[in-house]
Amino acid sequence: MTTLTTQQGKIRTTLYFTQENRERLDRIPKGQKTALMNKAIANALEEIEWEENAQQFLKMLEAIQPVKTAYSSEQMIRMLREGKEQKLLNNETK
Known about the structure:
The chain has 4 helices and 2 strands. The protein is rod-shaped and about 70 Å long. 61% of the residues lie in helices and 6% in strands. It has a domain at 65-94. A two-stranded antiparallel sheet has the order 1-2. It has helices spanning 19-26, 30-63, 73-81, 85-90, and strands at residues 3-5, 11-13. The protein is mostly helical.
C-alpha cells in the first residue's frame, strides 16, 4: 500500500480491491466514493476498538476482588431503601 501526505489532514493512499468491490465502487461518484470508504474504514476501526475494549473490560472484571463488609447483600439493600447509605459508606454497625 502506497501512502502520500497531500494537504493538511488529508492522506492519499493506494488500496487494492477485489474485482467485485471495484465494480461496485465504480458505480459511485468520485466524491461520494471517498466519503463512503472513509466511513466504512471508520466503522470497521470502531468495531475493532470496541471489541478490544470489551476484552479489556472483561479481564478487569475477572481481576476484581470481593470486598469484605459487615453486612449481607440483603441488609445492604434494606439500608439503601431506608436511606441509610452513609452507614454503609462508613461501614458502621447497627
